[in-house]
Structures are given as C-alpha cells and as structure tokens.
From TrEMBL:
Descriptive protein name: N-acetyl-alpha-D-glucosaminyl L-malate synthase BshA
Pfam families hit by this protein: Glyco_transf_4, Glycos_transf_1
InterPro entries per the UniProt record, alphabetical: Glyco_trans_1 (IPR001296), Glyco_trans_4-like_N (IPR028098), Glycosyltransferase_grp1 (IPR050194), Thiol_BshA (IPR023881)
Gene3D superfamilies assigned: Glycogen Phosphorylase B (3.40.50.2000)
NCBIfam families in the record: thiol_BshA (TIGR03999)
Domain Glycosyl transferase family, first and last residues per copy: 185-343
Glycosyltransferase subfamily 4-like N-terminal domain segment(s): 11-173
SUPFAM superfamilies: UDP-Glycosyltransferase/glycogen phosphorylase
Length: 369
C-alpha cells in the first residue's frame, strides 16, 4: 500500500505513535509518506520506503494566522496525486482529519483513516469552537480508531456518533535493560530515582508529582527527574526552590533519548487529570519500571492496580506517596512489579500485533479483505 501519515512534529504521544507506525509499515514493505510541519523527533535515520513532506502555510498580510489546515489539505492532495496514495492516516483529529477530508474531495480515490489520541476529543475536541468539525470528521472518515476503550466511549458520549470505532492501543518495542552510566549523575547510589515525563500542561498535574515527592523525600533517600517542558514548568521549578529541595529535582527539559532516562528510573509517576492511554507510562513499563498513576481515562486499561503499578484517586498524593514508599522499602515487590509491567507492555502492547491491526483496517477500508 501507499500510505500518507499526517501528524504533529512535537514530542507528544500522537506524533510518536504516528511516526512509529509509519516506520513499522515501511519495514513491512509499504511506501510511507509522513506529512508534518517539521521533522518529527522519532523520524531519525535514513530508512527505505519512508519519505518526509514538510507542510508550510504561506503567510499573507490579509491572514491573521496562516491557514495551516488548508496548506495541509493541499499538501495531502498533492502527495496523494503524485505518489498515488491509497490512504491518508490522520493522527489527532484537529486539524489532520479535516484536512484529509478536504484532500479526499480533491482526490476521490483516497481513503481517510483517523486516529483519535485523547485531548483531540476530551479537551480541545469538545470545545464548541471545534466540536461540529470534529464530529463531522469522525462521521466522514472511512475508518476511525481510538487508542483505548475509554476514548472510544468518550467519543460516542461527546459527539453522539454512531459508527464503528476500532480500539487500537499504543505500543512499544522491547528496550534493553542495562542501567546506563548517567544514573550516577541523577542520584547518589543509595537514592531511588522517581521519574515523570510529559508536556507539563495542566492536564498532567505536575504539581502532584512534586507534592508526592515532597512527602517521600522526608522518609527515604530519593531523587526526582522531570523530563519535558510546557506551561507549568516555571511554577514547578519555583515550588522546588521555595520548598528547599531544588537540588534533589532535575528538570531536564525535552529529551529525545527517553529510553536512557527510563533505564535509570525506579518508579514512574503519572498523576494526570485525564489520559486516554498514557504512552509515557507504557514506555516506563517496557523498561521494567512500575507506574503510579491516577485512576482516570484509559490508564486502568494499561496499568493493573497492584500488579504492575498502582492506580489512585485523582489528586490523592498521600496514597501515591505511600505507594512509592512501599515499593522503595520492598525490593522484592518492586522488582516483581517491574517485571510484570514489562511482560504486560511487551505482551499486550507489542508493536507487531498492534501494527497488524492498523494494516487490517487499511485493507478493510480499501475493500481488500
Ligand atoms: O499527552 C498529551 O497531551 C499529548 C497527546 C498527544 O496527542 O500527543 O497524547 C495523547 O496521545 C497519546 C498517544 O496516543 C496517549 O498515550 C496520551 O494518553 C494522550 N494524552 C492525553 O489523553 C492527555
């Protein structure tokens, strides 16, 4: 097949999933064209059958903002025609799905598959300024997927749509398990490493990470690694200084090499207000790191409470701190939970079977099965 994949080029999970699906499909012999405003961080290396198309919206004095969605639709139509694309796979509804539908009007043989990732439904998609167009895009796409059963139900509830939505989760590849040298920069030998990775948006509740850490550090030697950047970083760094533990918390900013950080970590914290799947948690699990998260959204479909991590009520930092202390104090429990987490990540959410599901969906919308 010839497949166009449209995504954001930020560090967010939708861009990661889109790029990794594209790489896996190219590895299976399909021709893949990735369309994005700039090179997605995971599209490193020169690989066969995978091409990148930069989308640029030209400015003009009349435009308040250059219309990216139109430029994206135009680029999709152009690439679809030149490379005889069978499918455009839009990752994150806004604006990729709408742009793909415009491209399909220009190139009627094109099929559109839309993957809903989370905030395109739960936060931005339900905003009245976008809702009617998101609803139309879900209705008119040839195939729609959601990354969890929670997100599928939330989509039906929010938009009242009555159409099949396939649930296809996020996935990981088996990472190595060696503990890298950099562990010694992050923490003294006797201290445990807690890690959080996100875009530091309010939905991630980074202050809950810090409050949990504050409770734990009073009891045991521990360090915190905060990876990523976003609107709440300044407040978070200020909090650490005011509470007098700034030297115990490392704010790394955005990092490409998440695997190395996770390989240095003992426990992963994800206290989000909502999370359709939680790719960062799954990546931690793949590294044998148990996850402590809030019991929201699709997280219970990924993390089994008491088996490969703990799920607590939203905002319950006392319970999360108790979970951390239990794992820190009981090495056997921590290691066995870490192993269970890895087994689950690489079993239920292995790349091969998940990419099989996308491939089967493409065949279905093309009427080839
Ligand atoms: O977490 C974010 O805000 C980024 C966002 C994105 O679209 O890039 O992540 C969403 O998609 C990921 C990949 O499918 C999911 O693993 C995340 O759970 C989801 N984020 C939220 O639902 C908040």
């Amino acid at each position: 097949m010839r497949i166009g994949i449209s995504c954001y080029s930020t560090f967010g999970g939708s861009g990661v999933v889109a790029t990794e699906v594209g790489k896996a499909l190219a590895g299976r012999g399909h021709e893949v064209h990735i369309l994005s405003p700039s090179l997605p961080p995971r599209l490193v290396g020169f690989e066969d059958r995978i091409n990148f198309h930069e989308v640029r919206a030209s400015p003009y004095p009349l435009f308040e903002d250059a219309p990216y969605s139109i430029a994206l639709g135009s680029k999709m139509a152009d690439v679809a025609e030149k490379y005889s694309l069978d499918i455009i796979h839009a990752h994150y509804a806004i604006p990729h799905a709408m742009a793909a539908l415009l491209a399909r009007m220009a190139v009627p043989s094109l099929k559109v598959v839309t993957t809903l990732h989370g905030t395109d439904i739960t936060v931005v998609g339900s905003d009245p300024s976008y809702l009617p167009m998101v609803k139309m895009a879900i209705r008119e796409s040839d195939g729609v997927t959601a990354v969890s059963e929670y997100l599928r139900q939330e989509t039906i509830r929010t938009f009242g749509v009555n159409r099949p939505i396939d649930v296809i989760g996020n996935f990981v590849e088996p990472p190595g398990l060696e503990r890298p040298e950099c562990r010694s920069w992050l923490a003294p030998k006797s201290a445990f490493v807690l890690t959080h990775i996100s875009n530091f948006r309010p939905v991630k509740r980074v202050m809950d990470v810090l409050k949990t850490f504050e409770l734990v550090r009073k009891e045991v030697p521990v360090r915190l690694v905060m990876v990523g950047d976003g609107p709440d970083r300044v407040e978070a760094e200020t909090f650490c200084r005011e509470r007098g533990f700034a030297s115990e918390v490392r704010f790394t900013g955005k990092q490409l090499d998440i695997g190395t950080v996770l390989a240095c970590s003992d426990i992963f914290l994800l206290p989000s207000a909502t999370e359709s799947f939680g790719l960062a948690a799954l990546e931690a699990m793949g590294h044998r790191v148990p996850v402590i998260a809030s019991r929201v959204g699709g997280l219970p479909e990924v993390i089994r409470h008491g088996v490969d991590g703990y799920l607590e009520a939203l905002g319950d930092v006392d319970a999360m701190a108790e979970d951390v202390l239990r794992l820190v104090r009981d090495e056997k429990l921590r290691l066995s939970m870490g192993q269970a987490a890895r087994d689950r990540a690489l079993g239920t959410f292995a790349e091969g079977p998940i990419v099989d599901q996308y491939e089967a969906l493409y065949h279905r919308v093309l009427g080839r099965n």
